[in-house]
Design goal:
By secondary structure, the protein is an alpha+beta fold. It is about 20% helix and about 10% strand. The chain has three helices and four strands. The strands form two sheets. A two-stranded antiparallel ribbon has the order 1-2. The protein has a two-stranded antiparallel sheet with strand order 3-4. A hairpin with a 7-residue loop joins β3 and β4.
């Protein structure tokens, strides 16, 4: 996480929480002027501003590992048609899927991970 702390505490401006109400009676101006609201830091929000970039790099790496098209100059959207996840727990099952030619809402998983087959169990449609 970003551990740099600001030297001064930052506060929201008075207009940040302004409601644009016409009457002063509708606004509790005394409580608004008494307490200024501090702007929380990224550490206080448990937020890392660089995390999205790190996550994207990790997903790109996973797609490149599973892709049948290993060329670097091929755009990512051409390397996979979809990323398949479990509908119950959202665990990623496949980063390299091919779209069915006839049935556009169906995909075929190329390289499956995080999935095990229990061979002595059968599914019954009954």
């Amino acid at each position: 996480m970003n551990t740099t702390q600001p030297t001064e505490e930052e506060y929201y401006s008075d207009t940040y929480f302004d409601t644009d109400l016409e009457s002063d009676d509708e606004l509790n101006t005394e409580s608004r002027t008494k307490s200024k609201r501090k702007v929380p830091t990224n550490e206080e929000l448990l937020y890392d501003p660089d995390m999205d970039d790190k996550d994207e790099a990790w997903v790109v790496k996973q797609i490149n590992l599973d892709s049948s098209k290993k060329e670097e100059d091929v755009p990512l959207d051409e390397k996979t048609d979809a990323i398949l996840s479990c509908p119950m727990c959202f665990t990623t099952l496949c980063y390299s899927c091919q779209r069915h030619e006839r049935y556009k809402d169906q995909y075929r998983a190329m390289f499956v991970r995080n999935c095990q087959t229990i061979k002595n169990e059968r599914r019954y449609d009954g």
